[in-house]
Amino acid sequence: MFVKDLLKGRAAVVTGAGTGIGKVIAEELAAHGCKVALVGRQASRLEAAAQELGAKGLSAMACPADVSEPGQVKDLFARVESQWGGVDILVNGAAANFIRPSEALTSVRWRKVIDIVLNGTFNCSMEAGKRMLKQGSGSIINLVASYAWLGAPGLAPSASAKAGVVALTRSLGVEWAARGVRVNAVCPGYIDTPQSRERLWPQEWVRKKLLDKIPAHRFGREKDVSDLVLFLVSPMAGYIQGEVIVVDGGESLGRGAMAFAEDLKSLRRPGAAE
């Protein structure tokens, strides 16, 4: 679908790139000619991912960093700029999450999620944005979740943080549009990854229950997300700005917070069975 050298000569930073969707996005960008910096907190995962891409003849380097720490983010982008001369693409995929009744939340837990998801997106967007604005071009993609606008019982910190990322996406999209920098967001639904199979549908009855709620009657593939990201950072999406595009097989259409709450209850109920 996409020409192989679509992103030839460009440099990208992908956060949350050690595993799952972030890793697949990084590989997709690299496979189409991009040099990719893999960012995350676990150096061993990043090194393994970079070696895996290198073995395929793709250009990637591991860049361990905590995106919630502004100093580390500054150092990260300085390293990428020194290595490759600039930054053309940023994918903010770093995430933090846990399920807990809101009345049981602590300020420490709240701040941790906000720091990684919202502040981390801000930190990276500012460092990338300054460089992109200077060169007059660039594309930023933020990964969000539909509970940013639907709400999510038990996931208040993540829902609040993602809602902030949606607002940041639209604000920067409007502010930077005339200066050549595009900012958009991608909202994946239930995506079939090793992590989601282990954490979200570890049993067959859970898997069937979730599939019943998806009009497309299948879970998404990581490539469903990475293909959309590839399109959005390409010249073909040059007039798309400040948008949040959902890729979930129609699952979020018509669903509200109470439906999501029922999912959480069934998934987390001790000894639950079909």
Give a quick set of tags describing it:
single chain; 7 strands; seven-stranded parallel beta sheet; alpha/beta; 274 residues
Provide the succession of SSEs: EHEHEHEHEHHEHHHEH
The coarse silhouette is globular
SS strand fraction: 5-15%
Radius of gyration: 18 Å
Overall pLDDT, averaged? 91
Structural class determined from secondary elements: alpha/beta
Roughly how many Å apart are the termini?
41 Å
Largest sheet: 7 strands, parallel
- Weakly predicted, low-confidence segments: none
**Share of helix, binned:** 40-55%
Strand order of the largest sheet: 3-2-1-4-5-6-7
Beta-strand segment tally: 7
Tally the helices: what do you get? 10
Write the layout of secondary structure elements.
Elements: E1 11-15, H1 20-31, E2 35-40, H2 43-55, E3 60-64, H3 70-84, E4 89-92, H4 107-135, E5 138-143, H5 147-150, H6 156-176, E6 181-188, H7 194-199, H8 204-211, H9 222-233, E7 244-247, H10 257-268
Parallel strand pairs: 1-2, 1-4, 2-3, 4-5, 5-6, 6-7
Explain what the structure shows.
- By secondary structure, this protein is of the alpha/beta class.
- Helix content is 48%, strand content 14%.
- The chain has helices spanning 20-31, 43-55, 70-84, 107-135, 147-150, 156-176, 194-199, 204-211, 222-233, 257-268; strands spanning 11-15, 35-40, 60-64, 89-92, 138-143, 181-188, 244-247.
- The protein has a 7-stranded parallel sheet with strand order 3-2-1-4-5-6-7, with helices on both faces.
- Strand 1 (11-15), helix 1 (20-31) and strand 2 form a beta-alpha-beta unit.
- Helix 1 (20-31) crosses helix 9 and helix 3 (70-84) runs parallel beside helix 4.
- It is globular, with a radius of gyration of 18 Å.
- The model has no long low-confidence stretch (mean pLDDT 91).
